[in-house]
Write a structure and sequence with these properties.
The structure is a homodimer.
Chain A: H1 17-34, H2 41-48, H3 52-58, H4 62-86, H5 97-110, H6 113-126, H7 133-153, H8 159-180, H9 184-199
Chain A binds a DNA duplex (30 and 30 nucleotides) through helix 3.
Chain lengths: ~200, ~200
DNA sequence: CTGGATCCTGTACAGTTGTACATGTACAGA
DNA sequence: TCTGTACATGTACAACTGTACAGGATCCAG
């Protein structure tokens, strides 16, 4: 109680944290629906249901807003994958693992095309803005570690390289899916085949 | 005048065609460097070295400009792949074909990161704008037909499905490459492995 | 040469957008 | 209760952007 902050229940979560998060979610939705070109203070504020002034209170600039939005989704995805990995999502036999893996990778996104589009948009933006690279790289790393773990369970050789390959391939598959709005069942079947082929000795 | 135009040597290429193309190329460069968000009449005009007024003369609107830019790159890519396929680019033995194929897919892009970024940006935009879908689909189809032809040469079963899989996977690999600016030699080696695995019986 | 079509461009302007800031309000600690 | 700090927002404005358009240059058939 003495020394470090005692009475404050949550010094890491200042009062405005919820609103800040709401603004970030709104930014992601705006990007998903209209691309980064559609991001402006007024659109984001309206989407979040807050007044215009809030956007300049929580973010230094428009670029900052986009940068935080990337960190936001990257952090969320990384955490989700870690949780999925530590929880027993992959604890099925090697025969079922490819299906299970495909579901984990796909399912979380299948329902939310807008967020998925925003993720690609932000990922692409990170190719152009060096300040966005660290967050994008953490995201990538979490994704690959997740896949590597699965590949190890499948007994695939050189799992690090295979994870790289699988990460990129599945990304492409998902991009194709989101662009063409293909049927989810087709996507799943293609993902499973891809996983099996890349895991094969 | 009577009947079909006789004297006109090139009724399909009106006088301003070159300038129009220059504007489209400029648009692609602007997109590649700053995303679709960076596209505005003045930036494109400056990039093309033409006055502002030209942009409104050749395009109905900013959206139209972006749409034509997508059609421009899609058409160019489709033609390139068809030419590559009909010229003997793939006429090597099945042992060398994967390497050759990887080179064709990669090499044309390796040198021009900006154009590649623009292509992804535009492809993503086509996921949001229905009017861009036809061009994006023609692009996709040309890409897949090229890959299918190669897969047939490799004796892969179900080449249509495999081409779909390979198309998406290579796209993902390239996206990863362009985002992380990875070494081209790594990219090539990964692409070859992917081709071999997807072509395998 | 003439007339008309096409090509071209500088300028103007209304609408939009990023951002600053003055003016508050809520709340924790003294 | 007082006070400082974080939270909040309406308003203002300079800069930017899309687009219209008047007027001019160039070309070519007749």
């Amino acid at each position: 109680m003495a020394g470090a902050g005692a009475t404050a229940p949550d010094s890491a979560a200042p009062r405005g944290a919820a609103r800040r998060r709401a603004l970030l979610d709104a930014t992601v939705r705006v990007i998903g629906r209209g691309g980064i070109a559609a991001v402006d203070h007024r659109a984001v504020a309206a989407e979040a249901g807050v007044p215009l002034g809030s956007t300049t209170y929580y973010f230094d600039s428009k670029d900052d807003m986009v940068a935080r939005a990337l960190e936001h989704v990257a952090e969320r995805e990384a955490e989700r994958l870690r949780a999925e990995s530590e929880g027993g999502a992959l604890d099925v036999g090697p025969y079922l693992l490819p299906e299970r893996l495909a579901d984990v990778v796909i399912h979380a996104w299948a329902g939310d095309r807008v967020t998925l589009l925003a993720q690609y948009e932000l990922y692409l933006e990170s190719a152009r803005r060096p300040d966005l690279r660290p967050a994008a790289e953490r995201w990538d790393r979490a994704y690959r570690e997740f896949l590597q773990h699965a590949l190890e369970l499948l007994g695939a050789p050189d799992p690090s390289r295979r994870a790289h390959l699988l990460c990129a391939s599945l990304d492409g598959l998902l991009l194709d899916h989101v662009a063409t709005a293909s049927a989810p069942s087709d996507l799943r079947s293609l993902a499973v085949e891809l996983i099996e082929r890349i895991a094969a000795p």
